[in-house]
Amino acid sequence: TENKGILERLDAGEVVVGDGGYVMQLERRGYVKAGHWTPEAAVEHPEAVRQLHREFLRAGADVIQTFTFYCSEDKLELSGNVTDISGAQINDAACDMAREVADEGGALVAGGVSQTPLYANKGSESDVKAIFKKQLDDFLKKDIDFFMVEYFEYVEEAVWGVEVMKTGGKPVGATLCISPDGDRSGVPPGECAVRLVKAGADIVGINCHLDPLTCVRTVKLMKEGLEKAGLKAHLMVQPLGFHTPECNIGGYVSLPEFPFALETRIITRWDVHKYAREAYNAGIRYIGGCCGFEPYHIRAISEELAEERGFLPPASTKHSLWAATLETHTKPWVKARAGRQYWENLLPASGRPKCPSMATPAD
Questions:
Q1: Per its Swiss-Prot or TrEMBL entry, what cofactor is needed (predicted)?
Q2: Span 251-310, pLDDT tens digits
Q3: Residue 84's CB: how many other CB atoms inside 10 A?
Q4: Is residue 304 part of a domain?
Q5: Is the confidence at residue 1, as pLDDT, over 50?
Q6: Do 232 and 94 have their domain in common?
Q7: Could you tell me which of 209, 172, 169, 163 has the C-alpha nearest to residue 189?
Q8: Is the Cβ–Cβ distance between 242 and 262 less than 8 Å?
Q9: 177 and 220 part of one domain
Q10: How many domains does the chain have?
């Protein structure tokens, strides 16, 4: 698959495994400032970003996304975090790094743009598009395989992003961070998908904000909308790596635990097996993760779909399918846990007797 582009792979019915989350993972490792979530680490600590790219690649990722989330000049200025590094410098370093690592394993590079503070502050279409255009111009100087318009709460702004990125002459994927109820303006997922495809998106789907099975449910609604409209597009999903049974419109950002106490909500590798299978059965072929997805979660996608893909990722040399390694454990009760039956049916305890299983979201 080394020289095949994203659409060639998807047109052939191949499973494309996405990578995982960057800003939240790097915040926990000490390289990103929470609240700002800007990617200056691409310039300040390239070794940290490169290592995470490599771990996702080793776990089976077919796509490495540039570490350019929230890299628009207005967002960087707003954060006040970055005074001596420009958006162009970050884009430049992030693109080179993603390409370098992707080439180590025949992966593709996706250059991403995300929602802007300007749109939220009622910026005009031409001003918002100018921000995307600036990022596109940076990407076009680099060796990028396709573009991603991701993490948009309003389909209108995502459509503007798609329209701009489409002028770059490469495939465009678009993912909204919305609930099954629709975007922030109440536009249902099916209609969102139709608008994105009409704007020129080749791949549409959902990323972040809510847990894997919820995101799959929303993509199914997008698929229905496209089918009703007689439109065709590939489907993708890159969900949140935390359980969000509240299924609220604001997603995990509105939960009381965001962003510093989400640990008890982390999904297990076995949850990911279930998610990957559900996504595949729903007809989704680009399957990855967003915030909260660590390399071992991406490996779980690769392992669940190993038969469909025809191979296991390098990281599986240090992991046996469905915990078979435990067969050799000296303690009989641990040895008894070797096998799918045990892990698939386990109800993990949180270890917090006084804690509720759900919270009341702010939004």
A1: Zn(2+)
A2: 999 999 999 999 999 999 999 999 999 999 999 999 999 999 999 999 999 999 999 999
A3: 7
A4: yes
A5: no
A6: yes
A7: 209
A8: yes
A9: yes
A10: 2
